[in-house]
Each structure stands twice: as C-alpha cells, then as structure tokens.
Write a structure and sequence with these properties.
With 196 residues, the chain is mainly α. The protein has two domains: 101 residues, RNA polymerase sigma factor, region 2, helix turn helix motif (Rna Polymerase Sigma Factor, Chain: A, Orthogonal Bundle); 89 residues, Arc Repressor Mutant, subunit A (Orthogonal Bundle). Helix 2 packs across helix 4 and helix 6 packs across helix 8.
Length: 196
C-alpha cells in the first residue's frame, strides 16, 4: 500500500514504530492548511514560520510521549495546538493581531485552491478575485475572519471550530453568519465585482 494513501492514524502508527517517513508525510499532507491559518492570524511570515515549527515540535513530543489520543481528528488537533500557540504568543507580547493590508505578502492562502484547466485569462481573473476576497476578509473582526478561514480554507466542521476556539457551536455559527453578512456589506459598499 502506498504511504500517500494511508490514513493519518496509520502514518502515526508507522512513525511510532520507527518509520520517520510517516511523520514527514503527515506534515506534508497538512502543512498548507496549518501554515495558512497561522499566517492569516499573525500576519508575519517569520513569526508564522516559528509558530508552525513550534506546533510540530509539540505534535512530535505529544505523539512520542504517548499522550496523543487518536480520534480520527489529527488536523483538528494540530489546528488547536497552533491556535493555542498563537494565543500564547499574543498574551506574551500583550497585543492582539491587527488587520494589515500587506501588499508584499509572500504567502497566499488561495494558492491551495485548485484551478481547473482554464485559459490564462480565466486564471488571471480567478487570481484577481482571490486577491480581492483576501483583502475583503482582512477587514473582518478577528473572530469572524478566523471562523471563515477554518471553515472554508481548512474545511473544518463547526463542531471542530468550536472545540479549537473554545466556544460553543452556536457562537461559531454566529461568527460565521456575521462574517458573511459583513463581507456582503463590504462588497456592496465598495461596489466590488467578484465574478468573471
């Protein structure tokens, strides 16, 4: 059986049996979603790199220590670790993340989206729409932006979002609802066209 087709649980099991390739595949499988989430919140590439690395150091130590409880939710568990490390960072620095409109951001959360075989013009239009949406999302309050990212880009369930952010499912749903309402308002107020 090819290692790429193994479940997260099987890869962890392989890693615990001494196959370090299992962990490498796990990290590679989920790195775009986890790193994208961290970068979206901290807005700083170097800091995102550090938190991403700290996240996986904690993951490795927990797995090696036998404290990881497999419930088929590896990604959600890692996202919660990343989320907690971000909160710890902001507590230590006594600041909350601010919305910045950075033009020279090297990482684009939309790079992880698939674009079907489209013409160059279609791809350019799609890229512009993604840039516009990314800018609009940055104007949302932190909690709304976070839920929107977890739901649509990390493809987490509302139950997992609630667990990760330590709020009720209703609060997570409410934040998502307000995020979408606020995005619509921003689009209407600024006459933004998001269709090709």
């Amino acid at each position: 059986m090819k290692a790429q087709t193994l479940s997260d649980k099987e890869l962890i099991s392989r890693y615990l049996k001494g196959d370090h390739n299992g962990l490498e595949l796990l990290i590679h499988r989920h790195k775009n979603r986890i790193y994208g989430y961290i970068l979206m919140i901290v807005k700083n590439k170097e800091l995102a790199d550090d938190i991403f690395q700290d996240t996986f150091i904690k993951v490795i130590n927990t797995i090696r220590g036998g404290s990881y409880n497999e419930e088929g939710k590896f990604l959600q568990w890692v996202m919660r670790i990343a989320h907690n490390l971000i909160i710890d960072h902001f507590r230590k620095s006594k600041r909350i993340p601010v919305i910045e409109n950075s033009q020279n951001d090297d990482y684009n959360i939309f790079d992880t989206l698939d674009v079907n075989d489209a013409s160059i013009e279609d791809k350019m239009i799609t890229e512009q729409i993604h840039k516009d949406v990314k800018k609009l999302i940055e104007y949302l309050p932190d909690e709304q932006r976070e839920v929107l990212y977890m739901r649509h880009f990390a493809e987490m369930s509302f139950k997992d979002i609630a667990e990760t952010t330590n709020v009720s499912i209703n609060t997570a749903l409410g934040r998502m609802r307000y995020a979408l309402i606020n995005l619509r308002k921003i689009i209407e107020e600024n006459n933004v066209v998001l269709t090709a």
